[in-house]
C-alpha cells in the first residue's frame, strides 16, 4: 500500500475528530454503518478507506468530506 | 455501493481537474501510477477510489487532497 504516511495521518485525524465528539469507535461505526474493526483499522492507518466509507464517516461526523480529509501532514509524499 | 451520488460527483470533478490541465486519462494514470481503466471507472463513478489512490491522484494533479475531494454536491446524502 502506497502513501502510508498520508493514510496514517488520516487515521490520527479521524481519531481526533471522533474523540472531540466523545464518540466511541462503536458509536462512530454505527452512525457510519460500517464495522467497528474497520474504524479501528482506519484509525491505526492499516486500511486505506474507500471514498464511500469516507463519505459515510463525514456524514456520521456531520462535516464536509474536504474537512474530514484535511489531516495535518496528509499531503506529504511517502 | 453506498453514497453513489457523491462518488459520481467526485468522478465528474476529477475529469474536470484532469481536462483543465489538458491531461489524457493515460497521462494522469501514469503520473498517479495507477491503471488507465481505474481512472476511467473512477471518472464514471463506477469505482469508489481508496485513500491511497486519492492521495496518488492529488499528488499527480499537484493539489492538496482536500481540494481533490471538494467536488460540488459530493456531500449530498444519497
From TrEMBL, chains A, B:
CDD domains: HTH_XRE. PROSITE patterns: HTH_CROC1. It holds the Pfam family HTH_3. The keyword DNA-binding applies. InterPro entries: Cro/C1-type_HTH, Lambda_DNA-bd_dom_sf, TransReg_Diox_bact_type. SUPFAM superfamilies: lambda repressor-like DNA-binding domains. Residues 14-68 form the HTH cro/C1-type domain. Keywords: DNA-binding. This is Helix-turn-helix domain-containing protein. It comes from Hymenobacter lucidus.
Amino acid at each position: 500500500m502506497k502513501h502510508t504516511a498520508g493514510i496514517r495521518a488520516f487515521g490520527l485525524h479521524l481519531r481526533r475528530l471522533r474523540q472531540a465528539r466523545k464518540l466511541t469507535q462503536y458509536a462512530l461505526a454505527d452512525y457510519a454503518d460500517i464495522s467497528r474493526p474497520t474504524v479501528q483499522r482506519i484509525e491505526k492507518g492499516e486500511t486505506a478507506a474507500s471514498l464511500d466509507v469516507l463519505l459515510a464517516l463525514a456524514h456520521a461526523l456531520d462535516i464536509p468530506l474536504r474537512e474530514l480529509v484535511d489531516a495535518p501532514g496528509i499531503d506529504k509524499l511517502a
